[in-house]
UniProtKB/TrEMBL annotation:
Occurrences of domain Ammonium transporter AmtB-like (ranges): 28-431
Annotated membrane topology: Multi-pass membrane protein
Name of this chain's protein: Ammonium transporter
Species in which this protein is naturally found: Boletus reticuloceps
UniProt KW keywords: Ammonia transport, Membrane, Transmembrane, Transmembrane helix, Transport
Pfam family membership, one: Ammonium_transp
Length: 503
């Protein structure tokens, strides 16, 4: 008899009772977690599109690599430091679940209807998105290796404590009654204020790099925004931890806040330029989704519209704060994520409704905010905001300063590297190959002549690229003289003295 055959019908491997878990809820959270994971490429495309072309791939790399670092950290000890139920200090967990030990089919901290193992996966994706937002602080001048070291330490010393405060059953914020649905403190304030601190330690980009700055690919900005919006529905909807009506309300509120924020931001920009900015619309949409993160599972849909309008306006004006602080927050992490998170948390103090909270069938005894005559909730929310903002900034700045002092881990690239672009000095590849006329003269075809007749007319000099330094470096050749028909002739209008170039 084989080994497998000898075990059939025996109790050598006793089964575990998982009948308490709702299969529909389990399936819903698996899908929601996958949707949150899809936010990682959304962030990467968004950041890349907002940057200069010469540093576009470095931001995609940073977001991608930070995701891998975060996955390992969360498995290693991150989940335990954030959610271990046996820690009682209220600030950070212990190592009782180190390496996911004893994390299997026990009821999760979020809901008794899903297992702890699934809950840990879902919360891991939250952490991955958070560090993806944070590393946007390196934009166009930060080295990627120190950023990965910072990611691991930041997750351990900043994100895990913030998550413990709000969501651990023994966290001080949880016990005090803080209402933070899907991460206004750990995710939005953590990444937004942390990103501001990171950018402050890195210092400003060179002034010549800031002249005439424009996003290099607005189409990527739009694509990244809508990928994020899609994933955010899993982010906020899944935070009800079940396929229930509270999840549906959270999804509706996310849609309404995003739409309201995008419209208001775009209109505010229109009053200045008389143009309907795509970047502005996307920025407002993301700001609305950020505010919905802590509030979507607590408030009524009408309140989500009000919150979205306020968020679009406040976050738009908050983009000017970086000039007041003199911090080069290149991607407006503070204005979008920190300020949006603050507005969402304060909105809970005003608009949180017991009727919405109880729709999940689990949190039936949780009070709302002012609309439920629970007036002290606004004070609790405000104190929580102050605590998370202060801790996130101080701790992130301290971690960044400490890493910067380690030989070989200087956070910032050299001035020469900043001028060349991080794609070249850090990655060695490029998001976009520079556009060329032709890679070789023999590929050139003129209108009206067959290729056979042109071959004899082609000079024998080497490749000419109608790009710039990046192609010269990639292909190992300097720029040769262009074909004669590409050299412009100067033409001067005798009446206006205007010089034009005629090809």
């Amino acid at each position: 008899m084989t080994l497998s055959g000898s075990l059939i019908g025996t109790n050598a491997f006793p089964t575990r009772d998982t009948s308490q878990f709702d299969h529909g809820d389990v399936s819903f959270i698996i899908v929601a977690g996958a949707m949150v994971a899809f936010m990682i490429p959304g962030l990467a495309f968004l950041y890349s599109g907002l940057a200069r072309r010469k540093s576009a791939l470095s931001l995609i790399w940073a977001v991608t690599a930070s995701n891998a670092v975060c996955i390992f950290q969360w498995y290693f000890w991150g989940y335990s430091l954030a959610f271990s139920p046996t820690a009682t200090n209220g600030f950070i967990g212990n190592l009782a679940n180190f390496g996911l030990i004893n994390v299997l089919d026990d009821p999760s901290p979020g809901s008794p209807l899903i297992p702890a193992l699934l809950y840990s996966f879902y919360q891991m994706e939250f952490a991955c998105v958070t560090v993806g937002i944070l590393v946007g602080g390196i934009a166009e001048r930060g080295r990627v290796l120190p950023a990965m070291v910072l990611t691991f330490l930041w997750m351990t010393l900043v994100y895990c404590p913030l998550a413990c405060w709000a969501w651990n059953i023994n966290g001080w914020g949880f016990k005090w009654g803080v209402l933070d649905y899907a991460g206004g403190g750990p995710v939005e304030i953590g990444s937004g204020v942390g990103g501001l601190a990171y950018a402050w330690v890195l210092g400003r980009r060179q002034e010549k790099e800031l002249l005439n700055f424009r996003p290099h690919n607005v189409s990527m900005v739009n694509l990244g925004t809508f990928i994020l919006w899609f994933g955010w529905l899993g982010f906020n909807g899944g935070s009800a931890f079940g396929a229930n009506l509270r999840a549906v309300v959270a999804i509706w509120n996310s849609m309404l806040a995003a739409a309201s924020g995008g419209i208001i931001w775009c209109l505010l920009d229109y009053r200045l330029e008389r143009k309907y900015s795509m970047v502005g619309f996307c920025s407002g949409t993301i700001a609305g989704l950020v505010a919905a993160t802590p509030a979507s599972g607590f408030i009524q849909p009408w309140a989500a519209v009000i919150m979205g309008i306020i968020t679009g306006a406040v976050c738009n004006y908050a983009t000017k704060l970086k000039f007041f602080f003199k911090v080069d927050d290149a991607l407006d992490l503070f204005a979008e994520h920190a300020m949006g998170g603050v507005i969402g948390l304060l909105a809970n103090g005003l608009f949180a409704s017991h009727n919405v909270i109880a729709l999940d069938g689990v949190n039936t005894n949780v009070k709302g905010g002012w609309v439920d005559h629970n007036y002290k909730q606004l004070y609790i929310q405000f104190a929580y905001v102050c605590a998370t903002c202060t801790y996130a900034f101080v701790a992130t700045a301290a971690i960044a300063k400490a890493i910067d002092l380690i030989p070989g881990l200087h956070l910032r690239t050299t001035p020469e590297g900043e001028s060349l672009g991080l794609d070249e000095v850090e990655i060695g590849e490029f998001a976009h190959d520079y556009i060329e006329v032709r890679r070789d003269y023999t590929d050139w075809t003129a209108v009206g002549k067959p290729v056979s007749e042109q071959a004899s007319e082609v000079p024998t000099t080497d490749t000419y690229t109608h790009g710039d330094r990046q192609d010269q470096e990639v292909h190992g050749k300097g720029r040769e003289s262009p074909p004669l028909d590409l050299i412009p002739e100067k033409s001067v209008d005798q009446e206006t003295s205007e010089v034009t170039e005629v090809y």
